[in-house]
Every structure is written in C-alpha cells, then in structure tokens.
Write a structure and sequence with these properties.
The structure is a homotetramer of 202-residue chains. The first copy, chain A, has nine helices and no strands. By secondary structure, chain A is mainly α. Helix content of chain A is 76%, strand content 0%. Chains in contact: A-B, A-D, B-C, C-D. Chains C and D meet through helix 1, helix 3, helix 4 and helix 5 of C and helix 1 and helix 2 of D.
Chain lengths: 202, 202, 202, 202
Amino acid sequence: MGKGRLEAFSDGVLAIIITIMVLEMKTPRAAELSALRPLALVFLSYVLSFLYLAIYWSNHHHLLYVTHRISGAIMWANLHLLFWLSLVPFVTRWMGESRFARGPTMLYGVLLLLAGTAYWLLQHAILLEEGAGSTLAAAVGSDWKSRVSLLIYAMAIPLALLRPWIAGALYGFGVLLWLVPDRRIERQVARAGQKVGTAGER
Amino acid sequence: MGKGRLEAFSDGVLAIIITIMVLEMKTPRAAELSALRPLALVFLSYVLSFLYLAIYWSNHHHLLYVTHRISGAIMWANLHLLFWLSLVPFVTRWMGESRFARGPTMLYGVLLLLAGTAYWLLQHAILLEEGAGSTLAAAVGSDWKSRVSLLIYAMAIPLALLRPWIAGALYGFGVLLWLVPDRRIERQVARAGQKVGTAGER
Amino acid sequence: MGKGRLEAFSDGVLAIIITIMVLEMKTPRAAELSALRPLALVFLSYVLSFLYLAIYWSNHHHLLYVTHRISGAIMWANLHLLFWLSLVPFVTRWMGESRFARGPTMLYGVLLLLAGTAYWLLQHAILLEEGAGSTLAAAVGSDWKSRVSLLIYAMAIPLALLRPWIAGALYGFGVLLWLVPDRRIERQVARAGQKVGTAGER
Amino acid sequence: MGKGRLEAFSDGVLAIIITIMVLEMKTPRAAELSALRPLALVFLSYVLSFLYLAIYWSNHHHLLYVTHRISGAIMWANLHLLFWLSLVPFVTRWMGESRFARGPTMLYGVLLLLAGTAYWLLQHAILLEEGAGSTLAAAVGSDWKSRVSLLIYAMAIPLALLRPWIAGALYGFGVLLWLVPDRRIERQVARAGQKVGTAGER
C-alpha cells in the first residue's frame, strides 16, 4: 500500500485542525484595541496549540520519510493519533475561554499525554514493520525526548489541579523541548547516504 | 483520466468532514470537569462517526489502489458517496444533542444505509471498468461484510423507533465489523505479485 | 511552472467549499423527524450547490488534464474562478433560509453567471497558451453547453424577481445539462491516441 | 527532506484560510437585496484578504519552485509565515464588522507587516540554503517590491489611527503592487534554460 495517500490525508487533517482553531476566536464587539485584552489568554492557548500541532506535523513528516511499507496496523495507529489531535481545538478553546482554570488545564495535559502515547504507538508500529536494522531504528535511538515529554504531561496533570499556571508553564516547556528540530533522522539519513557513497554504489 | 485528482479530492473532502465534526462540540460555560458530563453522548456520537469515516477512508484507499481507469461513471459514483458522507456531521450532531432520541437515531441509520449503498455502487462501477478477471474482482469475492453491514443498518432503522439504544448498539457493532482491516485486497495483491514472480515476469 | 500545485490548491479550495456548506445547516432543537420539515428548502439549495460545485470540479479536472503550461494569466484566471465559487456557501444559505425569496434567488443566478464567466475566461486563457491546434481546442469545439448555461442564468436573474420558482427550476435544469458528463475531451484524447497509434508511433 | 509535503501542507492551510473567511459573513435575516448593504464593508475586507492570500499563495508557489533543499530552518520559517496568515480571517472579520474602525484597521496593517516579514525570513532561509549563485538569488535581485510593501504597511499603521480610510487605500495599493504577477523567477528560469540550451546540453 502506498504511503502517499496516508501522508496526504494526515496533512489534510492536520492543516484543518491547525486552521479551524482560529475560527474559535470570536471578534470583540467593541472596535477599540483594548477590547482585545480579554482575548489574551485565548490567544496564548492558540499559540501553544499551533506550536504543538506544528511539531506533530514536522515529526510526522520525518517519521514517514523513512517509512517504506504501510501495514494495516500503521494505518490505524495513524488514525488513532489523528483522533486525539482532532480534539485539540475543543480543549484549547475551553482552556483559553476559562482563563486556564483547573479543570480545562488538566484536560489539556490529558490530551497531550494521549496524543503523545498515540505517536509513540505509531512509531512503534512503523519500527515493527521496518525492522531493527532500519534507518529509523538507528535514528530513533534512545528517544529521550518522547519519554521526557510524556513525563512532563503526566506531571502537569495533577499540578493543574493545584496551580494551573505551573501546568501551563510545563506545556510551554514541552514545546521548547521540541522546537529544536529533531535532527536525528536527518543525520542518520545523511550518514546512511555517506556510507553508500563510500561504498562506491550510486 | 488520472486517478490522482480523484483521490486527492476525496481525501480533502473526507479530511474536512472528519475534522469539522469536532467544531460542533460547544465548550461548556462552566470551567469544572463535571461540566463535560452532558457532553458524554455528543462525544460518543463523535467517536462513532469518526470511526465510520475512518473506515470509509481506509476502504476507499484500498478500493482505488487496485483501480486503473477512472470512467465518468466512477467519478459520479464517487461524488454520490461523498454527498451522503458530507451529511454525517449534521446527523451526528443532531443524534448527540438529542441524546440518541428516536428520530435522529433512525436518521443516522438511514444515512449509513445510503452511504453504504453509494459505496457498493462505486465498487460496482469500478468492477465494470476493471472486468471480471481483475485483481479487484478476485479480492472482493463474496463481499459478505458489505452485505451484513447494509442488513445491520436496515434492521437498526425500525428498531431506533422502538429502542434507540438497540440501534446505537447495532451501529457500534457495524464499526467493529470493519475495524478488523479488510485484508482481502492486500492478500490478493500479494498473491498476484507471487504468481507474477513465479512466472518469471517482472 | 508545474500544474500540480494549481490542481492541489484548487482541489483543496473546492473540497472545503463543498463541505462547509453543510456546516450552515443548523440542527433542529426538537428531536422529532417532523422538525426537519422547515429544513427542506435549505437541504434542496444544498443539493443544488453540491451538484454545481461537483460539476465545476469535474470540468476543471478535464480542463487541466489537457493543459500543459501554466502561465500567470491562467493562475489568476483560476483564482478569479475560485473567488466566485467561494461565495457559493453564503448565497446558498441565504437562498435556503429565505425559502427561495426573490432577492436571494436572483443573487444565486448572478453568482452562477459570474462563476460561469470566470470558467469561460479560464478556458480562454488556457486555449491562448495551448494554441489553436491543441487537443483542447479540438475538444472544446463550439462549446454550446457553456453558452446555453450562461443564457439560462441570464434568463433566470430577471425571472427570479417575478417568479422565484421558475428561476429555481432553471437552476435545476442547468445542473441536468451538465450531469451528462462532458465526454468531448475524453473522446478527443482517445482520438488523438488512435491517430498516434495508426501512425505507428508509441 | 522532500519539499512535496511542505507544499501540500502549505497549500492545505492556505486553501482553508482563504475559504473559511467566507464563513464569517453572516447571512442577513431579511430576504431583500437591500439587506446586503450593511455587508458592503465586510465584503470589501473579504475581497482584500482574498487577494492578499492569493498573492501569498502565488509567490510561495514561485519561491518553492526554485527551492531544492528543505532545511529545518526553512520548515520553521514556513510554519511561522502560516501562523500569521492564519490570523487573517480573525482580523479581516473584525475590520469589516467594525466598518474599518481605527483599532482593527491598524491591527490589519500590523498583521500584514508581520506576515510580510515572515515571508522575507522564509525567502532568506531558502537563499541561505540555495547559495548566492542560485537561480533564486538571481531572480530575487533587489527585491524592491517586498521592501516597498513593508514600507506601505509600516506607514499605514500610524495613519490608521488618524484616517482609517487612508490606511485602507494603502492596503488596496499594496495589493495592486503584487497583482502584476512576479515574473522575475519565471524570466530567470527561462534565461537559465536558454543558456543551457545555447551550451548544447539537454
């Protein structure tokens, strides 16, 4: 089965999710710039979710770049990931509108944890198909970033009930962790290319 | 005529349908997690429709993978299928908001029946073009799943007027039937590949 | 310049336009099927616009299939067409909600006329680029369908102010005219293929 | 890393942004054509933003056409551009609904300035990757249009607080500046092709 349509469908869903979030921001009735002030936290939650979805798109891009075969398990693992990500606009809006109240802020962490786990499952399904000696297996390596991310979300969930702003800060830290682009796969691809070059094969 | 744009357009429409459903879920006014409880059935209907649309995307993917020529009949059969699927968000929202009331729950079954019939027509139009000896014809075989699905929806429609929850359970069963991925086409493609391999042709 | 992105962007815009129209249909508050009755005309206008947009997508598909070069004029003629089509959901909703009142029904005709003219301009821009001896020039021929369509819309506009249902019937007739798929290009491509075949070239 | 998915994702996001803006236009309650008059400025702001987004799509198309390698910096510069463009529907709606009031009209200029700067950064990131001798470097040249555009937006921002209609006229002028399609890259590609042709290489 070709991976082209899987990528196209995922791109479509991610593009829509990332874009409809902005539909949630209601324009103020008043025409003064000061009328934007109550929207500050709504905007902040939008920026946070835009960054998370951009990171997912970027990592998804890298992951599928080194994928060669799409099994049924990979297809469903991908749909599972898209399901949780499709709920991001709903929870983002609720967190923003409630001005980072305890409940919605906790739920945001739960959603990040579920989406992160779904991504890990997708990566696992692809690794099973690609095999231990594949470019992907070498590239993923110890995968400390994913582990730390899941730990951060798991910590933020109970903390949101005590001090929501700590949870918010942790979500922001989780973004920074990934904003440094994941060069592992790029490096591994480059290294694989070099070896091939050295061996004299085209 | 190339099948690339047919797939791209169908992917686009399906990606939008599956994503805008979540726009229908209104965020609660209250900021407590308990405010989500009234949304439970809305969420359940969302999960149900997400799964149905994911199944349609997956089956559509398999179906077009073994399609070689796109006739005018295939193009219109495909648009006919997309038309019924485009109504899924509307009926899903109504069924969820009415807490699985008789009328909306019945209508959901009618829509599944119409979409299922449209898919069957699309498959038929492709089979006519591909011919009886094609990979697709061998792969589809007796096609018992489609028949059983249509039977389930037809049964659920009158039952929804008596006991909506029975209809709801049948819709859930209809999802489970398809969640086991349709390996018929994959197997047939693999088998066709083997034969070709044995015959020594490239 | 490649035509791939032009097709992808047009497919995306058309897929979104055709899908968001259904977002306009508000679910009834009551949970009885009879609550759908006031939506009948909204649904009818949705079906009408779905068919028109499907026809545009299909014709656009055929048109670009025989296009080889994308000039700046073609790109802007295409964006001009997409602009008018993007207004279809707005006018469709207004016509449906006003139960085919004179003003909105007239506006629908104006929009069809503008979109039809934009399509004609796009075709013209492509013909200029392809030249008189091209497959497209032979395929388009006298192009009576486009002329008759524009005439129908032009007639419907004043009639909508007298008897909106006559305009509505004309819009329906305009759909039927095109539902018979445009086989001219297909035939011409087949004919061109045959000639080449006869000449002994591959 | 392939540029295919970057283009597909950008096309998806731009197609959605350009299309959902029309969702913001609320249909009038009255069924007379005169009920459209209060929408005139909303429509005008829609046309303005449609043109700006169409120009961005067109320039983005040209820019990536001559791009060969996608670095991490290019990917993030592209996401940064899409972020500001995703806010266009929100600000467009506010400017239209407030009938080009000072605050919203100024904010529109700020957004154009931020998006213009993001585009410049993207172009810069690609130039860094392509190198000084590339087709792109020759094509961009002095890039006076971008500079003039940014100057126009920077001038419009303070002017919006004095006379919003002057700022509006400047935004319209900024569109006209770009509507003349950017033939620099086309010419450069043609020139590069000619040289190659003269040299006798295929």
